[in-house]
Design a protein that fits this description.
The chain is of the alpha+beta class. It contains 9 helices and 7 strands. Among the domains are: 72 residues, no CATH class; 96 residues, no CATH class. The strands form 3 sheets. The chain has a 3-stranded antiparallel β-sheet. The radius of gyration is 36 Å and the shape is elongated.
Length: 267
């Protein structure tokens, strides 16, 4: 059974959306357009009403088109992007349609959107709104505390997390936070890359590599090697100091043993 339904604002009681559906589509919040979501978020929810129901899907689609047209002529501001009549049940998209639908969801499209978000500047007023939206009982951890076992696991995870160094600002931290805020996202990256980079040649098994071309993971491994090499050098220096100290004490012991011993005379 198919039906035409209306969604009604909780704050004003006005109709803001008309749709065609079946089963639980009437009350579903998923797969709605952004205009519908904006209205629902603003007024805190919505009421539903079925206005027509029939077994013939084509007839229901025609009723949807008629209702949308009627409300628009009456001056209602609807969230419907189209004039209705689409969305036939069991419809299978052609390969060409699938390709067109896939474009906005491709990796290239996602990368472009990510770059746009990076350039987006959030005002202090907006930041304050974000903060208030997560304050008090709106925060997921409000009134909750971690158990002792959870705290211990978090502590161990942080203490044992691999430490890496950002190649742009030389900050050292665990790989999770560093990957989030540094490397290609580092604020010093543009400044440092604006200068001409001299090749940083790394020789491994008689093969030369330019460290400037390394990705984040390769840079992390290289930093570990450099850090361990420094520690090895420091340890070798300390070992030399210990050997010299040992030899000095051995020499002093021999000199002490070579001194004539005083014989105690018993009366």
């Amino acid at each position: 059974m198919f039906y035409v339904y209306e969604h009604i604002r909780l704050d004003t009681g006005a109709i803001f959306y008309v749709g065609k559906g079946t089963l639980k589509r009437l009350t579903a919040s998923r797969n709605r357009n952004r205009y519908w979501r904006n209205v629902v978020n603003k007024c805190g929810g919505f009421k539903t009403r079925k206005i027509f129901e029939h077994i013939d899907e084509e007839l229901v689609l025609l009723a949807e088109v008629e209702k949308i047209d009627q409300l628009k002529r009456l001056g209602y501001k609807l969230c419907n992007i189209t004039n209705g009549g689409e969305g036939a049940s069991g419809m299978i998209h052609t390969p060409e349609s699938r390709a067109k639908i896939g474009i906005p969801h491709s990796k290239e499209s996602y990368a472009k959107g990510l770059e746009k978000r990076k350039l987006l500047k959030i005002s202090d007023e907006t930041r304050k709104k974000f903060s208030l939206a997560r304050a008090g009982n709106k925060n997921v951890m409000y009134g909750k505390t971690h158990s002792e076992s959870a705290r211990e696991r978090i502590s161990v995870a942080r203490l044992t997390a691999p430490r890496v160094t950002c190649p742009y600002c030389d900050k050292v931290g665990d790989i999770a936070n560093m990957s989030r805020w540094h490397f290609n996202k580092c604020k010093q990256r543009k400044h440092k890359m604006s200068k001409e980079k001299s090749p940083q040649i790394v020789t491994i098994d008689n093969v030369e590599y330019n460290a400037n071309d390394f990705n984040e993971q390769e840079v992390a491994y290289l930093n570990h090697i450099i850090d361990l090499d420094r520690k090895i050098g420091s340890t070798q220096f300390q070992l030399q100091q210990l050997m010299v100290g040992k030899d000095a004490f051995l020499t002093m012991l021999k000199a002490e043993l070579a001194k004539p011993k005083e014989v105690e005379v018993l009366n």
